[in-house]
Structures are given as structure tokens and as C-alpha cells.
Write a structure and sequence with these properties.
It is a single chain. By secondary structure, the protein is mainly alpha-helical. It has 2 domains: 3-70, no CATH class; 77-171, GMP Synthetase, Chain A, domain 3, CATH 3.30.300.160. It has 10 helices and 3 strands, in the order H-H-H-H-H-H-H-E-E-H-E-H-H. The chain has a 3-stranded mixed β-sheet with strand order 1-2-3. Strand 2 (109-114), helix 8 and strand 3 form a beta-alpha-beta unit. The chain is globular.
């Protein structure tokens, strides 16, 4: 991992929380934040998603605050022509789980879009498993979801899991102690 990447990870660990930024910018009130945090705890959803679904803020307002909070550029992932190498680089289930979209590969850099649910540990895991440095961009949550559904379908994951289960059960059927 590069020194620059380590610096990014440490910066991300020290960043202000999204709710604090939205409060400071005047997009939400203390009461709206408290209500959204309670719903977030109950549902496990991301705070930005809860605030948008509650009608307190727009996706654009959340994205604007994330860009400032994380000091990352903005991209519209739905309009990006993603090369096959980027599509096949990481397991689709992993991308859906972390709401990340690989957009392109430039030399030794993997460009990815996130809706803000970023963990330095996930970035490090990607860098270790792919051998690429990760460059992150902020995108709208709906754009990330749409791109994941259209370009990184979960039926591929389902088919892969089905095949693995079939192999596992074939091994059990032919093994000792078969019922």
C-alpha cells in the first residue's frame, strides 16, 4: 500500500460524520438527524439513505456533502462505459454488499464510485486482492444502485453459488455414510 493510500485511509478515519456536515450546511435540523439516526439503528440502512427516504434532504444534497466531507470528486456512474476488465475484477456480491462500482482501470489504478459508505478496510481489501491502487469518486446512491443492477447482476452471483452448492452436494452424495 502506498504512503498516499495510507494517508487517505487515516484521513477517512478522522472525517466528520455525514450528519454533522448536513447539520452544519443547514440541510437538516437536530430533530431530523436524531429521528434518522434512530431509524438507521432500527433498519441498518445508511444515514444518507434514511434522510433521503424521509424527505429531509435530496440525493444531490447528500452527495454534495459527501464530496466535501471525503474530499473526493463526483461522477455519474450510470453514464460511464465500464470496460469488461473492471466488471470482472471483483465478485459482484462484494460490490453489492459494499455499494461500490468499479468504473475503469488506468495503469495500476482502479477507479471506483461509492455512495459514501466507505471503509478504509474495504479499500485496503480491494487493493490487496486486485493489486491495484483504488481511486474513489462519490456518486448518487440511486446511480450506484442502478449501475450495480444493470452491469453487475446478482443472478451471476446466484448462478455461481448454485454451481458451488451442486458440486458440494455431489461430493456428499458420493461420499461415505450416504443416507
Amino acid at each position: 500500500m502506498s504512503i498516499q493510500r495510507k494517508a487517505l485511509g487515516h484521513r477517512l478515519l478522522r472525517q466528520r460524520k455525514l450528519g454533522e456536515v448536513l447539520l452544519e450546511e443547514g440541510y437538516i435540523t437536530d430533530e431530523q438527524l436524531a429521528s434518522a439516526v434512530e431509524e438507521q439503528k432500527a433498519t441498518g440502512s445508511l444515514l444518507g439513505e434514511v434522510l433521503v427516504s424521509s424527505g429531509y434532504v435530496t440525493e444531490w444534497e447528500v452527495a454534495k456533502c459527501l464530496v466535501g466531507q471525503m474530499q473526493l470528486p463526483f461522477v455519474c456512474s450510470t453514464h460511464y462505459d465500464i470496460p469488461k476488465e473492471a466488471i470482472e475484477l471483483l465478485p459482484h456480491a462484494f460490490l453489492h454488499q459494499h455499494r461500490l462500482v468499479p468504473l475503469d482501470i488506468f495503469g495500476n489504478v482502479l477507479v471506483m464510485a461509492t455512495a459514501g459508505n466507505l471503509s478504509p478496510d474495504v479499500v485496503e481489501e480491494i487493493e490487496v486482492s486486485t493489486k491495484y491502487e483504488v481511486a474513489l469518486f462519490v456518486a448518487l446512491h440511486s446511480d450506484v444502485q442502478e449501475t450495480l443492477q444493470n452491469r453487475f447482476p446478482l443472478e451471476k452471483v446466484t448462478n455461481e453459488l448454485s454451481s458451488k452448492f451442486d458440486q458440494l452436494f455431489k461430493g456428499l452424495d458420493s461420499g461415505p455414510g450416504r443416507l
